[in-house]
Amino acid sequence: MAYSDKVVDHYQNPRNVGTLPKDDPNVGTGLVGAPECGDVMRLQMKINPETQVIEEAKFKTFGCGSAIASSSLATEWVKGKTVQEALAISNTDIVRELSLPPVKIHCSVLAEDAIKAAISDWKKKKEASTPAASAQPAD
Amino acid sequence: MAIKLPIYMDNHATTPVDPRVVETMLPYFQEKFGNAASRNHSFGWTAEEAVENARAQIARLINATPKEIIFTSGATESNNLAIKGAAEMYREKGNHIITQVTEHKAVLDTCKRLEKYGYEVTYLPVSKDGRIDLDDLRRAITPKTILITTMYANNEIGVVQPIQEIGKIAKEKGVLFHTDGVQAAGKIPVDVQKDNIDMVSLSAHKIYGPKGCGALYVRRRNPRVQLSAQIDGGGHERGMRSGTLNVPGIVGFGKAAELCQNEMAEESARLRALRDRLKDAIFAKLDEVYINGSMTHRLPHNINISFAFVEGESLLMGINDVAVSSGSACTSATLEPSYVLKALGVGEDLAHTSIRFGLGRFNTQEEVDYVTSRVIEVVQRLRELSPLYEMAKEGVDLSKMNWSASASTEH
Known about the structure:
The structure holds two protein chains of two kinds.
Chain A: H1 5-12, E1 27-34, E2 39-47, E3 54-62, H2 65-78, H3 83-87, H4 91-98, H5 105-135
Chain B: E1 7-8, H1 19-25, H2 42-61, E2 69-72, H3 75-89, E3 96-100, H4 105-116, E4 120-124, H5 134-140, E5 145-149, H6 163-173, E6 176-180, E7 199-203, E8 214-218, H7 247-285, E9 289-291, E10 302-307, H8 312-318, E11 322-323, E12 325-326, H9 339-343, H10 348-351, E13 354-358, H11 365-384, H12 387-393
Parallel strand pairs in B: 1-11, 3-4, 3-5, 5-6, 6-7
Antiparallel strand pairs in B: 2-8, 7-8, 9-10, 10-13, 12-13
Helix pairs in contact in B: 1-7, 2-7, 3-4, 7-11
């Protein structure tokens, strides 16, 4: 199977590989896929609670070259975007950008799922911490 | 010595034709182009003589007699002919066939078709080492059993079945025994007398001969095996396989068999040493690597390794100047990981990370060292990228994780 140049580039030079502290209240973690299916993506974002801007994004992926490229591209795209803008990224955008063949479309779906899962994790954390914050005595 | 890239290390899929084989074949395309079935002129006689010579060379490789070799288009046809031909011929005796789960699709799918026609097929399981249990086999035999078909050695994991014992059981019970010998013949000793084999499927292109040429050994004495032809026509090959013989292919097949026989002892020792060198270097440098299948009962030139937490296709992509293959779903048309590894009880997570190395006649030590270092380098790089490796290192039990089985993963 021939890979597109962009897939090869992301595979060889993956952007934003790494790990953010998952207990940081401003970090959202999305872990999607399953080892039995041959694809697991972990996408993490550090989101500014004031501006809702994604300031940092990191990923690690177990999967084929297209899965690695899809998640690498996702980190590039979400960085600097607001949460709202990131949620608008669709798997078809990824398919188009990386010229993924039909058998690899599930890689792009997984990347979209990973973005949504990371944001939802961050939102959950925020909601959990909000009542605690309001319980603080006011000055 | 400079290494020529890409390196071919997928010799279970096919092998390059040995230059000595090509040379033997060449005259049979033009000057000696006759039809081996032409009985009344020298063109035919020359072709026939060449075919008979090849028949003898192939027979010698497996300790058979020349008349017991039936030429076919390849081992897929041989497997079809052996199984369907015997099933049809011995239908009155019974309708039960025994095979096992790690067979090649040419055997499994042939058996499945026969099931549609009213035959009953037992698919014996294999243990973790990839071999069938002889007691399972004994128990599976019924008065209706007409055929046992088990491969000699597996194409993915190189595991060699207890052929001699199976042959003995088959003989005791009066059941025919066919073996798909494609991966074994020419590589390790295959002896139809010692092993009590009634039929063996052979292929030229797995032994440095040309593609499109195979054979089926069909025992003529003790017992005399009869088969219903699956291709009707001029009655070639003792009526078992009609069609004009592929004379250049057969000549090449014969030469290839002869070379394999002459060089087997030395060559299998050389490949075993290279294979072990590759395995030992990988195990010395990488943790969390697992061999699939028995190391004791295994072809000398095969190794199949799972590199945990690194998906097979991504590994192949990283070593793109090396031709090997993977049991990962992503490399197959079906998006299912290897059924062979599954049959061994290898989890799907590890099946996705497996790589098959098939060494061959033209691989050198320099090539093996190059492949080894590339594999180690790429596995290390991809593990840096693998969330699973990181989690495993942190002590997370991945099998206990509640994986979000996303609908998108197509399972």
